[in-house]
Each structure stands twice: as structure tokens, then as C-alpha cells.
From TrEMBL:
It comes from Teichococcus wenyumeiae. Pfam families: PEP-CTERM (PF07589). InterPro entries: Ice-binding_C. Residues 189-211 form the Ice-binding protein C-terminal domain. It comes from the Bacteria. Keywords: Signal. Residues 1-24 form the signal peptide. This is PEP-CTERM sorting domain-containing protein. The lineage of its organism: Bacteria, Pseudomonadati, Pseudomonadota, Alphaproteobacteria, Acetobacterales.
């Protein structure tokens, strides 16, 4: 009799765990804002690269099931430099002429994208880019400046996970390029195992109590 009772309780607990996983609710995302953080090498001064950064993120809410992706605009980057200096006068004179003489415009070009959430976690997620600028005139057949963002995996709740992936930007001429953000829900959070174990323990206790009562009658 005892073995049958334990088997029944174990089966019930397993069923509850399976149902909790299968019936995991869609995840609500609340995006509150976005911005760029940039290095000191950007600007219009001597030895700075003329690049402007503008956030296009608007506050928004959406719901994702596991495997789904939501896309939206993140920002706009504008390259205004007509010739990128190396800081070597002879090289810059040869590549850019007298108008290109100046300090090195290829260093301190870090870029970090920041995306703020209220849900499914209250945090600002940062995506750090690999960047580079190539010495010489802009508006040629070669890439002159690039921003390459790496996907960021974010964990939340009990087993929840999503990936933030921002669009890369490659410039071979002056002008503006916009990029987007993709959020993909890769894992849905599940109920805490402790709550399932507590429920199973309650079933076991109830069964043993009923068995004890039946013996005393």
C-alpha cells in the first residue's frame, strides 16, 4: 500500500513539473530607452574623427514566445570625415593633401550601445563594439570606418534567456547609416523547483495522514 501511495505522489509531481514547463507563459519585454557611449576620439577637434551618434530607441512593450524575435530601430551614426589622418605628416600629406594634416584620428574610438529594460529584468544591457578607422580619403571603394557589435546573451528569472543583437555599420563614404536591434527569446523561465517540491511534499503528507486515519478506524 505504501509503495502504491509513493508511486502515485511521484507521478503527480512529475506531471506538475511537465505541465509547468509546457505551459510556460510568454515573456513581456518593456524597453525604456537606449543610448551610445563613445570614446574620446570622436568630435570635430584636431586628432578626432568626425562621427555623430544619435539614439532612435523609443519606449515600447512587446511579448515573445521562445524562439521569437522582435526588431526595432536602435540608432543613427553619421560619418562627416572626408579624410582620416594618421598623425604622420608625410603620410597624411600624400593621402589627403594639405587639408588632411593633423593629429591621429584612428585611436580612442570605442563604442558601446546601451539598451534599458524594465522587464523581464530592470537593467541596462551593454553591447561593446569592435571599431576601426582606416587612414586615407573617404568616399572610395574601401571601407573607411566600421562598428561591429557582438551579440549579448542575457539571463533572467529561473532559466530565462534572450539574445540582444545590434546591426553592424560599415562606411565607405560620408553620410548616415541607421542600425536596428534584434531581441530573440532563447529560453523561457520556468516555475521555481522548490515550489513544485513543496506541493509534492504536501501531497505525500496528505496521503500518509489518510493512511494513518484508515488504520485507526
Amino acid at each position: 500500500m505504501r509503495s502504491k501511495l509513493l508511486a502515485t505522489v511521484a507521478a503527480a509531481a512529475m506531471s506538475i513539473a511537465t505541465m509547468a514547463t509546457a505551459m510556460a507563459a510568454p515573456v513581456v519585454f518593456d524597453v525604456t530607452g537606449g543610448s551610445f557611449t563613445t570614446g574620446s576620439g570622436y568630435g570635430k577637434g584636431n586628432g578626432q574623427l568626425d562621427v555623430a551618434f544619435t539614439s532612435l530607441v523609443t519606449p515600447q512593450s512587446f511579448t515573445l514566445d521562445q524562439g521569437q524575435t522582435q526588431s526595432f530601430l536602435f540608432g543613427r551614426v553619421t560619418l562627416g570625415e572626408t579624410c582620416i589622418n594618421s598623425g604622420n605628416g608625410l603620410v597624411d600629406l600624400a593621402l589627403c593633401g594639405f587639408s588632411g594634416l593633423g593629429g591621429n584620428e584612428t585611436d580612442n574610438l570605442g563604442v558601446t550601445a546601451n539598451l534599458s529594460f524594465a522587464n523581464p529584468l530592470a537593467a541596462t544591457i551593454q553591447s561593446v563594439a569592435i571599431t576601426g578607422a582606416f587612414v586615407g580619403p573617404v568616399n572610395d571603394i574601401f571601407d573607411d570606418y566600421f562598428i561591429n557589435f557582438r551579440p549579448v546573451t542575457v539571463n533572467f528569472g529561473n532559466g530565462g534567456e534572450f539574445v540582444l543583437d545590434l546591426g553592424d555599420l560599415f562606411f565607405d563614404r560620408v553620410g548616415s547609416i541607421t542600425n536596428g536591434a534584434n531581441i530573440t527569446l532563447t529560453a523561457t523561465p520556468v516555475p521555481e523547483p522548490a515550489s513544485l517540491a513543496l506541493f509534492a511534499s504536501g501531497l505525500l503528507g496528505l496521503g500518509l495522514m489518510r493512511r494513518s486515519r484508515s488504520r485507526s478506524i
